Amino acid sequence: WKKKKRSRSRERHRKDRRKRRSRSRGLSSSSSPERGRDRAARSRELRRRRDGSKSSVSSVSSPSPPPPRGREEPGQQLSLQERLRLREEKKKQAALMKALETPEEKRARRLAKKEAKERKKREKMGWGEEYMGYTNTDNPFGDNNLLGTFIWSKALEKKGISHLDEKDLKERNKRIQEDNRLELQKVKQLRLEREREKAMREQELEMLQREKEAEHFKTWEEQEDNFHLQQAKLRSKIRIRDGRAKPIDLLAKYISAEDDDLAVEMHEPYTFLNGLTVSDMEDLVEDIQVYMELEQGKNVDFWRDMTIITEDEIAKLRKLEASGKGGPGERRDGVNASVSSDVQSVFKGKTYNQLQALYQGIESKIRAGGPNLDIGYWESLLQQLKAYMARARLRERHQDVLRQKLYKLKQEQGVESEPLFPIIKREPASPSDSLEAQPGPSSEPEAEQDTEAKGEAEGEAVLMEEDLIQQSLDDYDAGKYSPRLLGPNELPFDAHVLEAEEDTHRLLLLRQQLQVTGDASESTDDIFFRKAKEGMGADEAQFSVEMPLTGKAYLWADKYRPRKPRFFNRVHTGFEWNKYNQTHYDFDNPPPKIVQGYKFNIFYPDLIDKRSTPEYFLEACQDNKDFAILRFHAGPPYEDIAFKIVNREWEYSHRHGFRCQFANGIFQLWFHFKRYRYRR
Predict the structure, then answer these.
(1) Is 451 part of a structural domain of the chain?
(2) Whole-angstrom Cα distance, residue 666 to residue 610?
(3) Is residue 308 part of a domain?
(4) How many domains does the chain contain in total?
(5) pTM score > 0.70 for this model?
(6) Which domain holds residue 119?
């Protein structure tokens, strides 16, 4: 029944729709000719009125004399009437356009008018530009009644303003919206200010971070330079130890020995250049530049002087090579060969201050100039003089270092300090000058001035190594092999003089004391052996099989005679009662003994550097993996010594007898091997 009722209502609706459509079609067909005739009449009327308005406007706008001031009211009335007439004409034109427009144009015009009205309304309500484009259908809030005014009656009653009319409420809402808008602008301004301050703080933090990173980078650079310097020194030590030292290694060792209290270098640093070729010296100059960069200003005077001397030696060698080939070396370099020996004799043997005075005198002579002055000769002298000045600086520095170290050694030993090198005092030129000695005159007349001679109160010339050698040769040629007899005036003030009889009596007393005590029969080695044998048990045996080492060159071999140290070693043996030995052996028939540990006692009584502790190195045995090589290294004058031991893991705990110490000239290394227990 319900289905039949629904179908009937649907049929009825369909019939009604068909009737309405047919009626609308009939009306439109009957009214279409009338509507066309009306449109044509309206267009003709519109054209006629336009032509009339144009003629009237032209007549009005035609030039006419201005009316007098006393008759302004008729003109004003005329203009007012004209304006009213134009307004009426405009209204008629608008009405005609409305009559002639199509339905689409009409709809668009009404929508534009409605939008303009809504915009004006929103402006009155205080909406901003960002909310002007919102409509009921197009807004981000999903509000279908956005353009309508919501009235909250309960809130108005609670606030006591429900009696206000709609206009007052709109004004009130407008003020509230304006206040909210101003507050929003303030909040936005504060937010922008906070963002600006935050950006400034971030920028400051970034700058601080950059400064910290720059400081860290600077420290990293310094650490990297220090690391490279230490690596360079380590490479130098390894090359020196292996007997393949380069000149830069010897120079680095020399400059580092100045900071060491016990290391003594007897030769000047420029003596390391003897026997080098041109390519070796060029490599040395590059290595010196690397050391100067790594040390960052430390020892810069030393490296600069060595660079000057090396470059001078390179120039000399190249000149010799060129002269040997008969090429450009024959050309004149400012100093004749016959004069060169005289020039060298002038420069040789002078101190740095004297050479500096010569240098200043030659420079002033070159600046003064003259018609007969040989500039090439004097400039060549300056170049040679720079090398001599560098050698003099290094020589004086070397002698100062030796004096300081000798003074420290004598202070440690309680001996009063004396002059390290002999001093030659020049004899005064005349008896009148006996109160103050002046330095010896130079063979160059231009370098000796009276003002400089008077300014020096006392001159000293330190004997060089060549002078000492020459003095020894002269003494040998003279045949004076016995010590020279000293007079009472030549003895030092603190010297204790003994008569021959008193010296003989003291010698006899010492001999009698030795005969009574018998201590003279026990040497230093016997004392060491006696100390090493203390505490030797029955399960220990003497171990004295030395492992031969390959020939190794020592840098200190020219100063000290290399020798092997004395030693007294013991090997600790015992039984290992494991499961197998417990099963197959007993105390009456024990198992074979195995090595359980070693005790090494190496004697270094004559070690030069008492503060350097001897070291041991465990190296693999190439022949048999079951054994290892234990090598001991101490320093001059002792060579390395090595032993072949069992290759097992050591027990480093002192509770298991481990000992590694150096005391009273004895280096002791005692250790036992680890015992491994079987665990299921």
Answers:
(1) no
(2) 11
(3) no
(4) 2
(5) no
(6) 2-59+77-131
